[in-house]
Structures are given as structure tokens and as C-alpha cells.
From TrEMBL:
This is Pimeloyl-ACP methyl ester carboxylesterase. Gene3D superfamilies: alpha/beta hydrolase. InterPro entries: AB_hydrolase_1, AB_hydrolase_fold. It comes from Tindallia magadiensis. It holds the Pfam family Abhydrolase_1. Residues 33-260 form the AB hydrolase-1 domain. The lineage of its organism: Bacteria, Bacillati, Bacillota, Clostridia, Peptostreptococcales.
């Protein structure tokens, strides 16, 4: 397959932000607009969030946003701190003339970005859903996690640059997890892994995790903005600090709720962390109800 980064094959639109092009894919109708923000090092947010946007878009306009270095978005030369990324997301939404306030759905490390957005632009946020979202306090307490993530980025980059990654499809957990994608998206997902795995911007985000975490903590809580915290069962059961900091995520808003999602009998942390693939119907039902409550001003 030819490289899918060519503009003619882009499913959405490429928007120029601070000298680099950012890819967004919009679908559906209805307010508030839902913005889907991926976790760190997700090669293709467009394919990763497919199980979510195909359902959410039935009741609300839904936008998949790909950070620089992800999906079809170009590499950015600006610092990859959460603060900078958030400013660029806000500029992007202004450029495409989207009308807030928005509901943000963020996976894993994307939590820092949407919390920072709510701190800086609170009037433009109607609600936040965190899918196993990282608490910045957890990152400050887990130097071992940062170290191993940096090591993984280094080896991932080698696998990509040497094309060895193409020989490892049969053991790649991300490819295996996304086997239920439509064939076209399945192929796009593979090529995006080959093209983007541990890209320059992804690695920079990891290196700046501590700085980004401190910035979010300094920003303080987000007031009464509805905050729904979805925590994976496996992480919650097996990692003590994760369990504690997930519970503490409720302190970021005076209007927050936590729900544990998963199967106590399944110990796979990676699979459960990607709960939008592991339990798509359960997850979507929860998110759809959250959106309806905001639409009907019940929360």
C-alpha cells in the first residue's frame, strides 16, 4: 500500500496551525460537539477511535483530532508540552470555526491535554470524559513509568526506522486489538503504525511528561465542569498508585463521577486500558448517557 499520508487520501481535513498541518475528521450532527483526544503514542487516532465515533456521531457532531506526529498530522517544531499542545488545539478549533462549549473525550495521557484546556478555556468546555485518563500526580510519583516509556520509545523508533516493525504484525498487540476494524481502516491502521510509531513528536511528549504534569497541577481544578472518570478494572486492581490517583481525579472537578469498567476475571492491563476496544458497547452507552445529560442540562 502506498503511504496514506498523501493529502488526497486523507479522510478529513488538514488545517495549518503554527506552520504544520493538523488532521481532523468530523462526522455527525448535534450539539455539543464532541472532541476525541488520543493517548500518547497512538499511531492513528482516526482508526483508534472508530468504535467510539461511529456511535457517538449518531447524536452529536464528533471530531477526531490528531496531534502533530500522529495519524495524518505533520511533525511540529514547537515544544510538545501539554501547555503548547493545548494552545494549538484551541487555535485549531478557532480556525475551523467550531462552536463550543465542547465535550472532550480523552484516553490515557490525553487527560492532561483536556484538563489543561478546561483550565485555560473553561467557558468552552461543557464536559469531560476520561478513558483510563492519567492523573498528572501519578506521573510525578512514577519515575519508573517515565523511564520505561522513554526506553520503549527508543526501541520503537528503531523498529520503525529499520522496517523490522513490518515483520512483527503477528505479535503487535495494537494490530491484534484492532482486528475488528473494517478492512480499509485495518490497512490504514497498519500503515500508520509503520509510519508513525514513536515519531519525533511522540518521543518529545514523553520526555516532557513531568514538565506537562507540573503545569496541569499548577493550573488547579476545573470548577463545576462535569467530569466523568472511566477507570479500567485491571489497572485499578493491580497498580496501587493508579487506583489511588484515579480516585483522586474526582478532585479535579466539584461535579465528578468515577465508574470502574472491565472484567475482574481478566488480568490483561493493556487490553483493558484500551476499553474503547475491549468493552465498546459498555463504554459507548456510558458516554452517550453523559452526552444526553449535558444536552438536557441534567448535570
Amino acid at each position: 500500500m502506498n503511504k496514506v499520508s498523501k493529502e488526497k487520501s486523507v479522510p478529513g481535513n488538514l488545517i495549518n496551525v503554527n506552520g504544520h498541518k493538523v488532521h481532523i475528521y468530523a462526522t455527525g450532527r448535534g450539539t455539543p460537539t464532541v472532541i476525541l483526544v488520543s493517548g500518547a503514542s497512538t499511531p492513528s487516532p482516526y482508526t483508534d477511535y472508530y468504535p467510539v465515533y461511529k456511535e457517538i456521531s449518531k447524536i452529536a457532531r464528533t471530531i477526531v483530532y490528531e496531534r502533530p506526529g500522529y495519524g495524518w498530522s505533520e511533525i511540529a517544531n514547537t515544544p510538545r508540552t501539554t501547555e503548547q499542545i493545548t494552545k494549538e488545539l484551541h487555535l485549531l478549533l478557532e480556525k475551523i470555526k467550531e462552536n463550543g462549549p465542547y465535550i472532550f473525550v480523552a484516553h490515557s495521557y490525553g487527560a492532561l491535554e483536556v484538563i489543561k484546556f478546561a483550565q485555560e478555556y473553561s467557558n468552552e468546555v461543557a464536559g469531560i470524559v476520561l478513558i483510563d485518563g492519567v492523573n498528572p500526580k501519578c506521573l510525578l510519583q512514577r519515575n519508573d513509568f517515565i523511564t520505561w516509556t522513554n526506553i520503549a520509545q527508543y526501541f520503537g523508533k528503531i523498529l520503525r526506522l529499520t522496517n523490522i516493525i513490518k515483520l512483527l504484525d503477528f505479535i503487535n498487540p495494537y494490530i491484534k486489538m484492532c482486528e475488528s476494524l473494517p478492512d480499509k481502516l485495518k490497512e490504514i491502521n497498519k500503515v500508520m503504525i509503520y509510519n508513525n510509531l514513536c515519531s519525533k513528536n511522540m518521543s518529545e511528549e514523553v520526555k516532557l511528561m513531568i514538565k506537562s504534569s507540573k503545569s496541569v497541577i499548577k493550573g488547579g481544578n476545573i470548577g463545576d465542569i462535569p467530569l466523568l472518570i472511566l477507570t479500567s478494572q485491571a489497572f485499578n486492581d493491580e497498580i496501587k498508585k493508579w487506583k489511588e490517583t484515579q480516585r483522586e481525579l474526582k478532585e479535579w472537578s466539584r461535579n465528578s463521577k468515577q465508574i470502574i469498567v472491565g472484567d475482574p476475571q481478566d488480568s490483561s492491563k493493556i487490553r483493558q486500558h484500551y476499553m474503547h476496544w475491549y468493552k465498546p458497547k459498555v463504554l459507548n452507552d456510558i458516554i452517550l448517557e453523559f452526552i444526553r445529560q449535558i444536552q438536557q442540562k441534567q448535570i
